[in-house]
Amino acid sequence: MAVLTVPITLVQAAKRGDKVAFMSLLEPSLEPGYRLACGMLHDSQAAEDAVQEAAFKAWRKLGQLREGHELRPWFLGIVANECRTVRRSRWWSVLKWPKSEHPVETSPDSGLSGIELRRALRRLDLNKRMVLVLHWYLDLPLDEISAITGISVHAVEGRLQRGMSELRRLMETRDEN
Amino acid sequence: MKTDNQLRSEFRSALESVTPAAPWLAHAVSKSLDTRLSTKQNDQARPQLRLGLNVVAMLVLIGLVVAAVGVYLTVHPAVVPADPGVGRVFFPTKMVTASTGWSRVEPSIERRASAVPVELWRTTDGGAHWTNVSPPSLPDRPSSYIDDAYLLDATDAWVAESTSGPARPHVTTFRTTDGGKTWHEGASIEGQSPNLFFIDQNHGWLVLPTEGTNLASLYSTDDAGLHWNFTSFAPWDGLTRITFSSITTGWISGGNLMVTHDGGVTWHVQPLPVTLDAGGYVGSPIFFDRQHGIAYCCTSNGSGPDIFLVTSDGGSTWVVRTTPAEAPLFEVFDFVDANHGWLIAGSNAEFSAVHGVPLPLYRTDDGGLTWVRVPANVLWRSPDESGYIDSLDFVDEKNGFAMRRKLGDVANPYTQWLSTTDGGRTWTVVVEAPRTP
Known about the structure:
The complex is a heterodimer of chains A (177) and B (437). Chain A is mostly helical and 177 residues long. Chain A is built from 8 helices and no strands. Chain A has one domain (8-176): RNA polymerase sigma factor, region 2, helix turn helix motif (Rna Polymerase Sigma Factor, Chain: A). The interface between A and B is large, with 85 and 95 residues.
């Protein structure tokens, strides 16, 4: 996936409060943001919430986007933070989301192994899960993941390797049972 | 062993299946922005507002070491009967008695496009009718929304509103002592994603996660939220809630269990009787009194079983309680005291079924030592409904509530709210929010 540089004029217009310009900038990043949130949360409704909230925060924080810098990694970083803090189904006291498997299966290929894989993925810590989703699901290059997560490319590689290894181990443990 | 490419391909397929198309997303985001921005009255004032609020933000930063002070402004919401049906999504309720309880309510997806706000609702007739008791918007916080709430009893509650101004986000707490008829505005603190907990009518804690870190600013109050005092930077992974079992002893859970014995100033790892893997997880403990508490735990070896951790000495020691052998994985659970609890659980095969299969309801009367299957008259999952149980909410040994959400039609989720008066054997639909036309 290529990283596009935001046209300066649109950024400037958006920073002056032009919502149309802001949406023009943001729209190409909404779908990747939604995929990231779905990959992290496994709940499309919660994912849409996260993207909407991230969009609003992006508007508020637009002044922090340095001119000439790419919008997408900046926005995906906001979505990622939203995913870290989303607590939709844990609003009261009972923990539910790690176990709630919302059965929205649509493809025959996404049967048993898909559910097992998602379950294993949820058991990874958030940082590794984030890097796996960004790299394997959104096909983002390591340098963009580095920009999104705020860690070095080397650290991204490390998390990717460790995440893949843990995911494989979790899947194999399940296969053996 | 699968190759990397095979695993990657499975990974993609698994996530594609939980990513339904959302062609309305850009429109929804745009409409949501329109509505939220229009409440600022004048978008052109944004740069000036940002400058002004940045100064405020700096002052609030200084407030990390200075007590935050509220104004205790009393505000009166417009209490109007609310229709819990069309366009609404119920969130897990907190019923206090068989008749009185609270629920946070969010708009459904299509209503969200017009930015219907999150609201706090209250019922006094067992959920048949609900009233919107949210704090009303004030002129100086037009873009605020309820981000968290703590519901102490039938009349006392707090909400934390995140104020989305053009500069740095702030959180303002509001308190009611009369079931939401009037609200008292407390301190406003810079931060977002608040998490509230109150141990009594005066003593509470407010967590504001620090973006991009595993720490959170922890504030405490001894005057019901009028003043918030910075207490510490607490460990925080964003996955759980803060809980206190007394004014001094509190808990933060997640990848492990942290405990404080000095009101949140210092935090230590609590030894547990189980070893947690890297992906292990301890749920937020629920304390019924100073001594007795229970916490969900998954040790994350990839195949379960899920367990409960139980304490009867104020958290100094914890013991493991298992679920029924045939149902090692939790869906939801609720305990009304240290002995009586309910659990919907299933086997690996049941959880892995593509379309879901009914899961049984279990009950314990001895704190999780033994579980008995409850022959309930409803199916908690069914193959043709794609529904799932969002919460169990028992108020005593007999009376309880359950929320069943249907998500098969992603754009039109609806909620069934059921009640039981015989400990879970017989369930009756109290409210069924219909599909949006």
